[in-house]
Every structure is written in structure tokens, then in C-alpha cells.
Specification:
- There is one protein chain.
- A hairpin with an 8-residue loop joins strand 13 and strand 14.
- By secondary structure, the chain is α/β, with parallel strands linked by helices.
- It is built from 19 helices and 18 strands.
- The protein folds into three domains: about 130 residues, Rossmann fold (3-Layer(aba) Sandwich), CATH 3.40.50.2300; about 170 residues, P-loop containing nucleotide triphosphate hydrolases (Rossmann fold), CATH 3.40.50.300; about 130 residues, Helicase, Ruva Protein, domain 3 (Orthogonal Bundle).
Length: about 450
């Protein structure tokens, strides 16, 4: 039931209005002054306030501003015995839904209430969706307790509050877009647009049009003006995935945006100015791309002001079970299945796998396993053949084969040092050259 708060110091008039509104199926709360009205707003979930302009301890026009600042989804309808244009104008400026005269406009009250409730309900739904979105893309939504992922999250959390450009690096499937979303949602731009584009998904011409927009007639098929993603993201952030795939000519235009906040649309002559935060990602080694002449060094320095390396899944073995259980629960709900347990051998097989596709590969494996599950327990038999085979043969090999044991040990130390080969060589008490030879020999990635 929708709640209406009536604030009026005339008790008889307030009571009469309350009875009329109550008969229409609304719950009515009453207050005689500003102070008690504000208190009831804090204690109850009010939809609409009907408020007299002249009150013993204040003015309804000024009270409207206080209400809207503290309770933005609450709509305020002001009632006055003597209407005047300046008050009416100021009331609307302060956020009032409407400003009506007592007696003359009584027949308008119920229709007005219904429209105000519709607007209030919409505002509350939008707020709920924003909260859900914020929760979905917050750092709390990133699953993992390993040192490597926690270190990456700590860096991302620190840079989120700034407007600094961020470069996320790491293998495909490590969750770079999830991190980009979390950075945006925890920034002061969170209420503005976040747009994403995969730079490897378009040709050079199409990518330029998607990013910067075009004017009518700029090329064959350009039948009308088009806004680019940089314009769509104005005030917010843009996520450029697979940045290393971008053409050198486009890299120059991107560099200009970073340096001046301006770009020129395809077929346009004047510049368009935007205020956009850039978060980019790549699975390529951009330093190697620079040496090969495929990536601009000046762009690299501008885009990588703050660089975050996301760990591969094999570098965060401790998180595999957490991620697997999360995906299992999600896919069980999606497929209307019930899971009571996951066999320990199932988890062990996941931990033994190399996960070249990282979290994306694990997610796919878990979806497949849930689909194959007939009872309520996940077992090794639900895994793809290569994971089942690896989980049995690899254990036997590791137990009796010295080279295999050495490979596993080197991999563990590399995971511990986050891939730092110099530190790994010191911990293993071997030369760096020897370590590189063994990495190549054992095909350690």
C-alpha cells in the first residue's frame, strides 16, 4: 500500500484530507509541522508528501528542498491557501511535483497523487537497479582470496577514486572487463555511462566509426549522423578491450583524445570535446609490439600511467574451488538443478588442470558439468575427458617421475613469485639461465 504523508498545521483540514485519501486505498500518515514531518519521513517509506506552504516552524517551499535532498524518490505536492507565481516557480525549482491551491484544486488531488506515485515508484525501481548493478560490478563481486588476485584488487581499488587512465594486462579470460567495471563503479563517475568495445572485433574503418562517430555521407552507407562511443561515454568511462589490436592510425587519434580530450568524427572538420576516462586492456606484450613497430610508444606511456597485471588462473590455484562453487551454484539455478555436494576428486581434477583459457574456460567447464549432472553431486565423470585423464595419469606420473615432480615444483615457485623468474631462480637456488632452460624444456607457460 502506498504511503502518503500530509503535513499541515490545520488539524480539521488535515483530517478531512486524510479520510478522502484513505478511501482511495492509500495509507495516510499525518504531521503538523516541518520537524515532525521530516522525522516521519526518516522512519517510514513514504511515496508522496502533501504539504502546506505556511507551517508553524517553516515554509513548505523550503521544506521541499530539504525533502528532495534527503529523499530524492519522494514526490512533494504543495498546498497553499493563496497561490502566487514566485512561490510556485520556486517550488518547482526546489523539486516539487506540483503546486496547487486549497479548495479550488481539491478535485485534482487524487489524480495528482496517482501520477506522483507512478513517478516515485519509477525512481525507487531505478535506485534498486542501480544498487544491484553497483553490487554486481563492485570489487566484492570479484571472487578470490589468493595473494595475486588480492594484490590486483588492492591496486584497482586505489586507482578507482582517481581519473587516471588504467591499463589492464593479462591472458585472455582473466577477467579484465570485470575489473574495468569494478573500477568504474567505485569511481566518482559511477552514475555516468560505462561503454565497452573490443578493438579486435572491427575493421579499421568500422572501429574508427564506432569509437568516434561519423557525419552523413562520410562513406558509403553513412546515411545519417552517428554518435561514437566516446560521445556516449562523455562524463563516464570507456573500456577499450584488446587495445594491442588497434591500427596505428587509430592509435594516433586515441593519443589525441588522451592529450587534449578532443577528436574529429569521420567526415567532420571540427573537433568534438569530451571528458572520458579510458580503461584499456590487452593480452599482448605491448613492449614487444612497440619494438616490432605495431604499437606507438607515446601512446603506451599515456595509456599505461597505472598498469595492473591480472594473474592467470594457474597462478591462483587457491581460488579454483571458490570459483567452481560459485559457477556451480549459478548454473544449477539457471538449469533448475540442485547440488548437495561436489566430490573432492572433482575439485582436485580442476586444480591439476593448466587452464590456458583461465576463468572463462573454468566457467564453460562448470556449465557443461552441471548440464551432465543427473543426481545432486558433481563427480569427476562430469568433467571433459581431458580433465578426467589428467587428474589420474598426472598424479601417477608425478609420484614416480623425477622430471614431472621438478616441473610441478618449478611451477609452484613461479606461482608464488607471481612469475618473477629472477626471484624464482634464487628460491630454487639455480642460475637464471638454468631456470629458462627448464621452463622451455618442461613447456611451463
Amino acid at each position: 500500500m502506498n504511503k502518503i504523508l500530509i503535513i499541515d498545521d490545520e488539524e480539521k483540514l488535515r483530517g478531512l484530507l486524510a479520510r478522502i485519501i484513505n478511501l482511495e486505498g492509500f495509507e495516510v500518515i499525518e504531521a503538523g509541522d516541518c520537524k515532525s514531518g521530516l522525522k516521519k519521513l526518516d522512519l517510514q517509506d513514504i511515496d508522496v508528501v502533501l504539504c502546506d506552504v505556511k507551517l508553524p516552524d517553516g515554509n513548505g517551499v523550503e521544506l521541499t528542498l530539504q525533502i528532495k535532498e534527503k529523499h530524492p524518490s519522494v514526490e512533494v505536492i504543495l498546498l497553499t491557501a493563496y497561490g502566487n507565481i514566485p512561490d510556485g516557480v520556486q517550488a518547482i525549482k526546489n523539486g516539487a511535483f506540483d503546486y496547487i491551491i486549497k479548495g479550488d484544486d481539491n478535485n485534482r488531488i487524487i489524480p495528482l497523487l496517482n501520477r506522483a506515485i507512478e513517478k516515485s515508484s519509477l525512481a525507487k525501481r531505478v535506485k534498486t537497479l542501480e544498487q544491484q548493478l553497483s553490487k554486481k560490478y563492485s570489487f566484492d563481486s570479484i571472487i578470490g582470496k589468493s595473494k595475486t588476485i588480492q594484490a590486483a584488487m588492492e591496486l584497482a581499488n586505489k586507482v578507482a577514486a582517481t581519473d587516471t587512465s588504467v591499463l589492464l594486462t593479462g591472458e585472455t579470460g582473466t577477467g579484465k572487463e570485470v575489473f574495468a567495471q569494478a573500477i568504474h563503479q567505485n569511481s566518482n563517475r559511477a552514475n555516468k555511462n560505462f561503454v565497452a568495445i573490443n578493438c579486435s572485433a572491427f575493421s579499421k574503418e568500422l572501429l574508427e566509426s564506432e569509437m568516434f562517430g561519423h557525419k552523413t555521407g562520410a562513406f558509403t552507407g553513412a546515411v545519417k549522423d552517428k554518435k561514437g562511443l566516446f560521445e556516449e561515454a562523455n562524463g563516464g568511462a570507456i573500456f577499450l578491450d584488446e587495445l594491442g589490436e588497434m591500427n596505428l592510425e587509430l592509435q594516433a587519434k586515441l593519443l589525441r583524445v588522451l592529450e587534449t580530450g578532443e577528436f574529429i568524427k569521420v567526415g567532420e572538420t571540427k573537433a568534438t570535446k569530451v571528458n572520458v576516462r579510458i580503461i584499456a586492456a590487452t593480452n599482448r606484450d605491448l613492449q614487444q609490439e612497440i619494438e616490432a613497430g605495431h604499437f606507438r610508444q607515446d601512446l603506451f606511456y599515456r595509456i599505461s600511467v597505472f598498469q595492473i597485471q591480472l594473474p592467470a588462473l594457474r597462478e591462483r590455484i587457491a581460488d579454483i574451488e571458490l570459483l567452481a562453487r560459485h559457477f556451480a551454484t549459478a548454473f544449477a539455478i539457471k538449469t533448475n538443478k540442485k547440488i548437495t555436494s561436489i566430490n573432492p576428486a572433482f575439485i582436485e581434477a580442476l586444480k591439476q588442470h593448466t587452464w590456458n583459457g583461465n576463468i572463462r574456460e573454468l566457467k564453460n567447464v562448470m556449465e557443461r558439468s552441471i548440464i551432465l549432472m543427473e543426481k545432486d553431486e558433481l563427480t569427476v565423470g562430469h568433467l571433459p575427458y581431458e580433465l578426467q585423464h589428467f587428474s589420474t595419469s598426472q598424479k601417477q606420473l608425478s609420484a614416480f617421475d623425477l622430471a614431472s615432480a621438478e616441473k610441478v615444483h618449478i611451477q609452484k615457485v613461479l606461482n608464488y613469485t607471481n612469475g618473477n623468474k629472477t626471484e624464482t631462480a634464487k628460491l630454487l637456488n639455480i642460475g637464471l639461465t638454468t631456470l629458462y632452460r627448464k621452463i622451455e624444456e618442461y613447456k611451463i607457460s
